[in-house]
Amino acid sequence: MKRLLVTGGAGFIGSNFIKYWLEHHPLDRVVNLDALTYAGNLENLTSIDANPNYRFVRGDICDAGFVVQVLESEHIDTIVNFAAESHVDRSILGPAAFVETNIRGTFVLLEAARNYWDKGADESRFLHVSTDEVYGSLNQGAAPFTEQTAFAPNSPYSASKAASDHLVRAYFHTYGLPVVTTNCSNNYGPYQFPEKLIPLVVINALEDKPLPVYGDGQNIRDWLYVEDHCRGIDAVIQSGRVGETYNIGGCNEIRNIDIVHQVCALIDQMRPSRRPKAELITFVPDRPGHDLRYAIDASKIRRELGWEPRYTFEAGLADTVRWYLDHEPWWSRVRDGLYHQYMELQYRKS
């Protein structure tokens, strides 16, 4: 039986991972540590509230004493670090929070794990979840990112994640901490905060609001369905080699403008209206330092661990759009702030 500490477990990917893990490893213990900032939402986890193997604790990964207390009281042997500020636009407007959470927070976790596991924990593992953005921007026709690609981050967000990746690597080589890092491509799926591209387009289209597209919409991203990402992390926890990095990508390189058109077509099909949703597309000034293209070479995780994505982009996108259509109360509460009231109520109950 594993005893996992999942940091940032009330966020989009973290909450999907916790539910995935408890479904596929029902005997394991999962402790969710989250500071419940703007994108953390306990409502994502209502389906497992009563699970005796799940516990939520509210706290900041930068609080060293609190992190150590959780590790010791719960006898944690596996840390999965999702906790991060992750939106590039927000990092441009306010980079300080990204330095604090993504760099200092990772350092605090590494130090806590090193000191606790030195006391005799067996078969421990520190899995650090990172991003393909640390590798920088690719030109058209360039080979996809591999685990050997040199880091070249271009935003405060990606720079802070690159720094945290370097810290994780250093703690393995210097202290022998049993770490492993995953670098994933753009995730999409249920419970994603509405500031990200796909949910933003879905919700704005439903409300007949402009669908903002940066620049000319030619920026390319590799898209990974969140459940496939969870499966990849599972494979790395179970069988990944300590000290290694594994790229996890969906092998779905798509231009932003094509994503928007596909979402519009799905909404036109699932919820027809008089006006085609594509008429709402509005091009806006590009953001500073906008990377042109990301692409992931996931051959290492395929070759070593047998992982590959199960969802085609078409199937995953259709499921995602349908989820947002069916869960308007959830995203309405997220946007108007009512979920914070729910959060406080849940915390008092726990």
Label the overall shape: globular
CATH top level?
Answer: Alpha Beta
Q: N- to C-terminal separation?
A: 24 Å
What is the helix fraction of residues, given as a range? Answer: 40-55%
At CATH level 2, the architecture is 3-Layer(aba) Sandwich
Contiguous helical run count = 12
Instruction: Report the CATH superfamily.
Output: NAD(P)-binding Rossmann-like Domain
| Low-confidence segments | none
Describe this entry's structure for a reader.
- The mean pLDDT is 93.
- The protein has 12 helices and 12 strands.
- The protein is globular.
- The longest helix has 22 residues, at 96-117.
- With 350 residues, it is of the alpha/beta class.
- The strands form 3 sheets. Strands 3-2-1-4-5-6-10 form a 7-stranded parallel sheet, sandwiched between helices. Strands 7-9-11 form a 3-stranded mixed sheet.
Defining traits:
Rossmann fold; 12 helices; single chain; alpha/beta; 44% helix; 7-stranded parallel beta sheet; 3-stranded mixed beta sheet; 350 residues
Topology, please?
Elements: E1 3-7, H1 12-24, E2 29-34, E3 54-58, H2 64-74, E4 78-81, H3 88-93, H4 96-117, E5 125-131, H5 156-175, E6 179-184, E7 186-188, H6 197-206, E8 211-214, E9 220-225, H7 226-239, E10 245-248, E11 253-255, H8 256-270, E12 281-284, H9 299-305, H10 313-326, H11 328-336, H12 338-349
Parallel strand pairs: 1-2, 1-4, 2-3, 4-5, 5-6, 6-10, 7-9, 8-12
Antiparallel strand pairs: 9-11
Helix pairs in contact: 1-7, 2-4, 4-5, 6-8, 6-10, 8-10
